[in-house]
Design goal:
single chain; alpha/beta; serine acetyltransferase, domain 1; UDP N-Acetylglucosamine Acyltransferase, domain 1; 2 domains; 5-stranded parallel β-sheet; Trimer_LpxA-like_sf; serine O-acetyltransferase activity
Length: 316
């Protein structure tokens, strides 16, 4: 006996009221209820013309192109020489910056606020130009991070291994780029760049976080760094470290107050070991060491050593 293979209904069939799928899943009722939720009871749509959201896939390609421009022989083409390397970098930058400008403009239109940087096309072009002008300085910062990883990890054998193989390195490259965009006002694009890094590495750094030179994240999985965190130079942290907020202030009506400084300040030359949770606008003094799995909500003087045994000896 011959058995026919079931097929998916065509688009026209799917819209037909007597389509079996419509009856099986009661789609008419579900679609109507979703319309009520979308348009009335739970509407989050802004007024005005519908706009396309920025593309995560396009931003991933842009990030890859920018990384190739920053490190052309490591992420780009191995056989580049003095005659063609500048051409390669220029080509990658041209494509990446054109795409970034489009995404910045699209994101500003999607938000729908004319005061958002990039809302006008000319503003998006100028923002992208300012971003591009900071790339040489960013590369210098990334090199300082690379050196810090080599010095701080006895398992590291060479720079290429760290640059293309360490998740902490990938995360900090993404963050350095996202932080520029955040500072220029392209906050939605910056947030998406940070989330791409989070997906790729398991490291979640808000693009607003300020991070000094020589930053090294060892292993990295589960690291969380909040928006208003300030990290000094030559800081090393390990996996599952959280630099978070202790509480969220509210106004008289109970609404969260946005933008307040609520994350830790970590001064220069600090080491924070795996699993430490540091909360609130506290300061970890220069040269201090924070032990693994410590829960910390108080200031720490310079050159301190904080362990689980000592963390609770002073009141928060």
């Amino acid at each position: 006996m011959k058995h026919e293979i079931p097929r998916e209904p065509s688009d026209n069939e799917a819209r037909t009221p007597d389509n079996p799928a419509q009856k099986r899943w009661q789609l008419e009722r579900v679609v109507a209820a979703l319309r009520v939720s979308r348009e009335e009871t739970h509407s989050i749509r802004r007024d005005g013309e519908a706009r396309r959201a920025p593309s995560r896939e396009a931003l991933q390609a842009i990030l890859d192109g920018l990384t190739e421009a920053l490190f052309p022989r490591h992420y780009g083409q191995f056989d580049l020489d003095g005659e063609n390397i500048d051409y390669f970098v220029g080509n990658r930058l041209s494509i990446a910056l054109d795409g970034l400008c489009d995404q910045v403009h699209r994101a500003a239109l999607f938000i729908g606020d004319e005061l958002t940087p990039g809302f006008r096309r000319d503003d998006a072009i100028e923002l992208t130009r300012k971003f591009a002008s900071q790339l040489p300085d960013v590369r210098g910062l990334i090199i300082s991070d690379l050196r810090a990883a080599f010095v701080g990890d006895p398992a590291a054998r060479n720079f290429p291994e760290i640059l293309i193989g360490y998740p902490g390195m990938t995360a900090i490259i993404h963050h350095r780029l996202a932080h520029i965009l955040h500072g220029l006002g392209a906050r939605l694009v910056a947030r998406l760049v940070a989330e791409i890094a989070h997906t790729r590495t398991g490291i979640d750094i808000h693009p607003g976080a300020s991070i000094g030179s020589g930053f090294f994240i060892d292993h990295g999985t589960g690291v969380v760094i909040g928006e208003t965190a300030i990290i000094g130079d030559n800081v090393r942290i390990y996996q599952a470290v959280t630099l978070g907020a202790r509480h969220f202030p509210t106004d008289d009506e109970g609404n969260l107050i946005k933008g307040d400084a609520r994350h830790p300040i970590v001064e220069d030359d600090v080491v924070i070991y795996a699993g430490a949770t540091i909360l609130g606008r506290i300061t970890i003094g220069r040269g201090s060491t924070i032990g693994g799995n410590v829960w910390l909500t108080r200031n720490v003087p310079a050159n301190s050593v904080v362990t689980q045994a000592t963390a609770g000896t002073r009141s928060a």
